[in-house]
Amino acid sequence: MNQLFPSKDKVTNKSANYAIDYFFPKSKSAAPTQLVTTTVVQKSSIPIIIEATGNIVAANIVDIRPEDNRVVGKIHIKEGRTVKAGDLLFTLDDRANKANYEKAKALADDATRQYKRSLELIEKKFISQAAADTSKANMQSAEASARAAQVALSFDHIRSPIAGRAGVINVFPGTLVQAGTNISTTSSATATSTTAAMVTITQLDPINVQFTVSEKEIPLILGQRDEADELSVTLDLGGTNPPVEGKVYVVDNQVDPSIGAVRVKAQVSNKDGAMIPGQFVRVKLKAKTLKDALVVPTQAVVTNINGNFMYVVQPGDTVDLKPIKVIYQYQGQTVVSGINENDKIVVEGKQNLRPGGKIKETKNAEKAKEQ
Question: 199 with 169: CB under 8 angstroms?
């Protein structure tokens, strides 16, 4: 009875399974073969490049100010001209200092003659040794006074302490300048009003560039390096100017906590004068060279919430998803660990791959997939 008339539940389940199989048929074939492009992992040396933005700063800069209260007598330079160390910049009214020096020099000459005379007299025993010693002390004191007067006179002839380019001159012949203060020039609405040094001399060749490096990159520039791995920079000045190369000469000894970075300075040649202080530049810092590194195309790296991976081709044209560690990335190249040299990895066509999936190599996987 039961065999001839099956239960209502069995009939219902059989009808449901038939509907599912009809509308959602099970695949009778394996997953399709994916078209991919591959490459072989090779070892090579790759430089670590850190990109930053910086500003040009002067290697030396000096504000010229007087050391005494005087009137400007003559100006010996022109604005914007290059000067050498020791070149005469300004002559101040030196009449008073010259008179003081001539007086002190005369006294020193007289004291010298008196001392020489005392040496002759002491040989003849006309004076005591104490008198000769006093004469010597007087001579030395007079000579010191003469040297001091000569120094004061030299202040009236202001010379450049460095080689560089002169900026805007803020004084004129007849201007009263005072020691220890800025030079202030005020006038009517038709004239210039400035408050600055007499002139500023700026060294422009060589010149420096200052930029910052993130604290996470500090081990790259301060870590162990070969002697040949000098910290070098390349500056991009923009426009048609060619790149300029230089060497890092100082890395600051502390991190600025407000920006989480350390200041770095490099020195570059500026013979053509294309760079001036304050100019914005782009900097590429070559930190060191990674030798015998496993370098792969960046597009071969698969990144998800679990980390970084790479599809490695296995025997039988299948792939295996292996975890890797990314050490360094720059301009489409990535240094990794976790795979071996001469491993064949998938570069293109990996978006539809699954571990254990079959692959077929093509010269252009993306083009083949579109067809």
Answer: yes
Q: What pLDDT, in 10s, does the model give residues 215-273?
A: 888 887 876 555 555 788 999 988 778 889 999 999 998 999 998 999 999 999 998 88
Long-range contacts made by residues 336-343, C-beta under 8 angstroms, separation at least 24? Answer: 336/294, 336/296, 336/301, 336/308, 336/310, 337/294, 338/310, 339/41, 339/294, 339/296, 339/310, 339/312, 340/41, 341/41, 341/42, 341/43, 341/294, 342/40, 342/41, 342/42, 343/40, 343/41, 343/312, 343/313
- Return the SS3 of 130: helix
- Residues 92-151: pLDDT tens digits? 999 999 999 999 999 999 999 999 898 888 888 888 888 888 989 999 999 999 999 999
Hunting for tokens 């006309």 — which residue is that?
126
Collect all residues with Cβ–Cβ distance below 8 Å to 71 and sequence separation of at least 6: 92, 93, 174, 175, 176, 177
297 close to 334: Cβ distance less than 8 angstroms? yes
Give backbone dihedrals phi and psi of 31, rounded to 5 degrees, phi first.
-60, 145
pTM of the model: 0.63
Rg (CA), the chain: 41
What is the CB-side half-sphere exposure of residue 214 using CA atoms within 13 A? 5
* Residue showing tokens 């420096």: 208
